[in-house]
UniProtKB/TrEMBL annotation:
It comes from Nakamurella sp. A5-74. This is Methylthioribose-1-phosphate isomerase. The gene is mtnA. Residues 286-305 are annotated as: Disordered. GO terms for molecular function: S-methyl-5-thioribose-1-phosphate isomerase activity. Catalyzes the interconversion of methylthioribose-1-phosphate (MTR-1-P) into methylthioribulose-1-phosphate (MTRu-1-P). Substrate binds at R46, G47, A48, R82, Q189, N240, K241. The lineage of its organism: Bacteria, Bacillati, Actinomycetota, Actinomycetes, Nakamurellales. One of its GO terms (biological process) is L-methionine salvage from methylthioadenosine.
Length: 343
């Protein structure tokens, strides 16, 4: 995802339409607020860091499209288009503050700065996370096998990604035996997107159905579980794609490190615990069928929470671009950076 602008034309957000992967790679040029909100809600763009950058650039789109007061109102609509990932609101708020004081150009500068910071954060998380994995499983022979869920690569950020960025770093360093990707029901982000990214980076990988993860973990074939986060509460609880909590429970039973990788911007000190995180329900259609084909009988009721919350007690470590937090040692994200022992 990036910003594209000709000499005389308004700028557009250029992004891959993730709903079309892996069968085809389609680029979208988003030039209106309605188009951006639609892209966010149908998951053409998704992933906490990517949503933050999209939200910031969305303020620029609103400033191009509307007069000041209407642009501010449109920015609020972008901010509320998906409720769980905190990065979306962080990105909107940052660019909107710049717009209020300096106008359109200031908003664009703030949004592009956030983009660049996201790229740098992903590189920092990759290094920090790979070092942590090596230290946690140092007594086992290399190369190592990682398990992950959903998609946390460059598609979910701008470049490299969070948890998948750590896997990429291990692969480039020759320390990866295999990445096991959970298919990630109901929209198969793991099967469609994570395997696509792993293939492009040349990393060895396998795909499993979500319900096979616990058996594989218990069988001793996985060295660590790496996942992302859409919001990290002050007490260390984390919200991520539905199925993450189950992985954490299975990893604890199997004695496998469970590591959350997310930028510092995903930490939300205003959210005390996971109980305070709003969990988006995407409605029954995604559960009752897939790809336009109905699999459940008409009229079947379904729940479709897009996220779940993993308690801090089940998390071995939270890796951000600025620090490593060890909940099992009593460390919490709410601890100020200058007091955190794991900087």
């Amino acid at each position: 995802m990036d910003w594209s602008q000709g000499d005389d034309a308004p700028g557009v957000i250029r992004m891959i339409d993730q709903t079309r992967l892996p069968s085809e790679t389609v680029l979208l040029d988003i030039g209106t607020v309605d188009d951006l909100i639609g892209a966010i809600q149908r998951l053409s763009v998704r992933g906490a860091p990517a949503l933050g950058v999209a939200g910031a650039l969305g303020v620029v789109i609103a400033a191009q499209q509307f007069e000041t007061e209407k642009a501010i109102a449109a920015a609020a609509d972008i901010r509320s288009s998906r409720p769980t990932a905190v990065n979306l609101s962080v990105g909107v708020d940052r660019a909107l503050a710049a717009f209020r004081t300096g106008g359109l150009q200031a908003a664009l500068t703030a949004a592009l700065q956030l983009r660049d910071e996201d790229i740098a954060a992903c590189l920092a998380m990759a290094e920090r996370g790979a070092d942590l994995v090596r230290s946690l499983v140092g007594g086992r022979p290399r190369p190592m096998t990682m398990m992950t869920i959903c998609n946390t690569g460059g598609l979910a950020a701008v470049e490299h990604g969070t948890a998948l960025g750590v896997i990429e770093r291990l692969h480039l360093d020759g320390d990866l035996a295999s990445a096991i990707a959970c298919e990630t029901r109901p929209l198969l982000q793991g099967a469609r997107l994570t395997t696509w990214e792993l293939d492009r980076m040349g990393a060895p990988h396998e795909l499993i159905i979500d319900s096979a993860a616990a058996m594989i973990l218990a069988g001793g074939g996985v060295d660590a579980v790496l996942v992302g986060a859409d919001r990290i509460a002050a007490n260390g609880d984390t919200a991520n794609k539905i199925g993450t909590f189950s992985l954490a429970v299975a990893a604890r039973y199997a004695g496998v490190p469970f590591i959350v990788v997310a930028p510092e911007t995903t930490v939300d000190p205003a959210t005390a615990s996971g109980a305070d995180i709003e969990i988006e329900d995407r409605g029954p259609d995604e559960v009752g069928g897939f790809g336009g084909v109905r699999t459940a009988p008409p009229g079947t009721h379904a729940r479709n929470p897009a996220f779940d919350v993993t308690p801090a007690a089940l998390i071995t470590a939270i890796v951000t671009d600025r620090r490593t937090i060890r909940p099992e040692l009593g460390e919490r994200p709410e601890t100020p950076l200058d007091q955190d022992r794991s900087r």
